[in-house]
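Entry:
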Amino acid sequence: MAAPVVSRAALGDGAGAERFVAELTAGRPYWEIVDEVIRALDDLAQCPGADPTLLAALRAPLAELRASLDHGRTALG
């Protein structure tokens, strides 16, 4: 799931990347999937020419989702 988000972000297609993030957050993702996307966005942020504003906007709802999923994951053991 990280590839569509990251590829759109890398191309500067914020609307396309946001659409994939919305699809991911609308479903019932596993913690690991959300974490993978966040890590990929973090890697992309290290690349020359990356748009930090776009990446921060994409990362924010995913980090919130990951935190809520992580809480449930921890509670379950």
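The chain has a mean pLDDT of 89.
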